UniProtKB/TrEMBL annotation:
<protein>
    <recommendedName>
        <fullName>DUF4239 domain-containing protein</fullName>
    </recommendedName>
</protein>
<keyword id="KW-0472">Membrane</keyword>
<dbReference type="InterPro" id="IPR025333">
    <property type="entry name" value="DUF4239"/>
</dbReference>
<keyword id="KW-1133">Transmembrane helix</keyword>
<feature type="transmembrane region" description="Helical">
    <location>
        <begin position="6"/>
        <end position="24"/>
    </location>
</feature>
<feature type="transmembrane region" description="Helical">
    <location>
        <begin position="45"/>
        <end position="65"/>
    </location>
</feature>
<keyword id="KW-0812">Transmembrane</keyword>
<feature type="transmembrane region" description="Helical">
    <location>
        <begin position="182"/>
        <end position="203"/>
    </location>
</feature>
<dbReference type="Pfam" id="PF14023">
    <property type="entry name" value="Bestrophin-like"/>
</dbReference>
<feature type="transmembrane region" description="Helical">
    <location>
        <begin position="210"/>
        <end position="228"/>
    </location>
</feature>
Amino acid sequence: MPEWLVLTLAMLAACAVVVVITLVRHRRAPEDEDPSETPDVIEYMTMWIGVVYAIVLGLAIAGVWEARSVAQDHVQAEAQALHEISERVRVYPADVRDRIRADVNAYVGHVVTREWKEMADGGDVSGRGDELLQQVRVDVTDYRPASDFQAQAYQPLLDQLAAADQARNARAESTGATMPGVVWFGLLAGAVITIGMVFALQIRRTTRELVLAGLFSALIAFLLFLIWDFDAPYSRGVTASAEPFLRLFPGIAS
């Protein structure tokens, strides 16, 4: 059974249970029962709808912000690992050192110029980037250390190369939206219900109430926009940046 169908049935079942219990209790209530002695259910429901929806909005904002921060951490880890490779190959012969550094610079240049723009347009990491990183791997792994000093640097270079590859894969996995569709359904439905409760309380046309209702609706719209903006870490307003690459490789032009 599809998840959306399970969700729909669960919501309908919950509504049906509440309605049935309310009708049964109303029919079995004693004739002398005075409903005015209990609090107004509209005010009670409005309060809890606002509280629950505020919690959901807060969790959603925290989730997308954390995803954006994690995406930036992937960029930092990848740039740092590549920088370590460029620095550690100084113990290698000049021709090997220059070739590895040139290939690292070629990969970084491709990432900050072409690949980053593709990611910003909602795409994925490029196959060309995979090829350039593979070339760096070939350069590092195919060289046979000629001395004990070079041999001591060989394994750390492999570790940094693995770290760069892992960070790249993590960056590729975080290019898309992080919020599932069912969460967006809950956020939008909750916004409609929360704002709709304003009308359930019989809002009047006084200037103060109209201004407050407008500001309340604008605030919810702003928070939903904020969630949407953070939802794609590399392709919208407040995004993870390529600044770590540019800082560690200042000769690369963005």
